[in-house]
Write a structure and sequence with these properties.
It is built from 13 helices and twelve strands. It has about 375 residues and is of the alpha/beta class. It has two domains: about 25-250, Aspartate Aminotransferase, domain 2 (3-Layer(aba) Sandwich), CATH 3.40.640.10; about 250-370, Aspartate Aminotransferase, domain 1 (Alpha-Beta Complex). Helix 6 links the parallel strand 4 and strand 5.
Length: about 375
């Protein structure tokens, strides 16, 4: 099988994910080290301003991780004890962790099976008098149905909080994710579509929330020793921000490459592995392809065969959050059949921008062989 643009043999292990760090990032870190300004200095301020261009100019506040971004965003928006926030169970545990750390209760809703995002009907069924918000996760880089979820939020007087940690540059009906909710959170973990080494960004719809996030990330103070609230130490370092500023200049091109790689995989796998359920994209959605996730009822065997063929893969996520020990004791009564099914079937293939055309050829051939048994 030959894919257009193949340019030589591809050998060795193909990684499931790969952070792309080059000389420019190293030089940016060296610049910070030479400056002596290490934490929450001019690089962080510049990174916040520059990242705002990706989210319709909304105010951005940088922190030390995506989970911190979710946590501080919820606190700044007024979420606390006695409140409930509806979240998907099919996501990384950090989504529900942030709600619990805010003192509120995560209420788990099911997903729809095509795009892996919150099912609006399941969300509406989960609303109670204690519900204060809905937190969709734009899982794998695919936007949730923000029109339907916003309509539910408006109907019940709820806030929308976006977990956009996997969805840099994804868009819903032409508008970037992260620009819809009262707050939104992005992650810059090493394997995300862009990285700062580790870090996160809180995107705020209004300045009052943004100011509260700034207080919370820095021991409760904006001016030194004038602590206004009890806060945390979740600041971003200037080294991380300097890396992020370089990556901002590359993420558009990398995202285009991810989309092109996904198009090749989908086109070829539809022919070579017709028994596999391929990723779909909703009308009005622009997928960022943080992950390229297939579904198959023989997932574990196929993953093992791909590993033997030198193809790295990932299972995101094998256990529903509501069944994890950290949440199971308080999650009795949840029936989330789609979530439980996809947890048994999902398998993410390499889609990152470092892949060559020969790599894509190898992936397709290996999947076809693995599926055939």
């Amino acid at each position: 099988m030959e894919l257009a643009g193949a340019n030589g043999p591809s050998t060795g292990q193909i990684s499931a994910a790969r952070p792309l760090i080059g000389e420019e990032e190293r030089q940016a870190v060296d610049r910070v080290l030479a400056s002596g300004m290490m934490v929450q200095g001019p690089e962080v301020a510049a990174f916040e301003t520059e990242f705002a261009a990706l989210v319709d100019g909304r105010t951005c506040v940088a922190v030390n991780s995506g989970t911190s971004a979710l946590h501080l965003g919820l606190l700044a928006a007024g979420v606390g004890p006695g409140d409930e926030v509806i979240v998907p169970s099919f996501t990384f545990a950090g989504t529900a962790n942030a709600v619990a750390l805010a003192g509120a209760t995560p209420v788990f809703a099911d997903i729809e099976p095509r795009f892996f995002c919150l099912d609006p009907a399941s969300v509406e069924a989960a609303v109670t008098p204690r519900t204060v918000g809905i937190m969709p996760v734009h899982l794998y880089g695919h936007p949730a149905d923000l029109d339907a979820l916003q309509a539910i939020a408006d109907r019940y007087g709820l806030a929308l909080f976006e977990d956009a940690c996997q969805a840099h540059l994804a868009r819903w009906r032409g508008r970037p994710v992260g620009a819809f909710g009262k707050v939104a959170a992005f992650s810059f973990y090493p394997t995300k579509n862009m990285t700062t080494g580790e870090g996160g960004m809180v995107v705020c719809a209004d300045e009052a929330v943004a100011r509260k996030v700034r207080l919370l990330r820095n021991q409760g103070m904006e001016r030194r020793y004038e602590n206004e609230v009890v806060g945390f130490n979740t600041r971003m370092t200037d080294m991380a921000a300097a890396i992020g500023r370089v990556q901002l200049g590359r993420v558009t091109g990398w995202t285009a490459r991810r989309r092109a790689n996904a198009a090749v995989l989908s086109s070829e796998l539809a022919v070579e592995a017709p028994g596999v359920a391929l990723p779909q994209v909703a009308e009005g959605a622009e997928h960022a392809y943080h992950q390229y996730t297939i579904r198959t009822d023989d997932r574990d065997a196929i993953q093992s065969r791909l590993q033997e063929a030198g193809i790295g893969t990932g299972v995101y996520y094998p256990i529903p959050t509501h069944q994890l020990p950290s949440f199971a004791s308080g999650a009795g009564g949840f029936e989330l059949p789609v979530t439980e099914q996809v947890c048994r079937e999902v398998l993410s293939l390499p889609v990152h921008p470092a892949l060559s055309h020969p790599d894509l050829e190898r992936i397709v051939a290996a999947v076809a062989k693995a599926v055939a048994g």
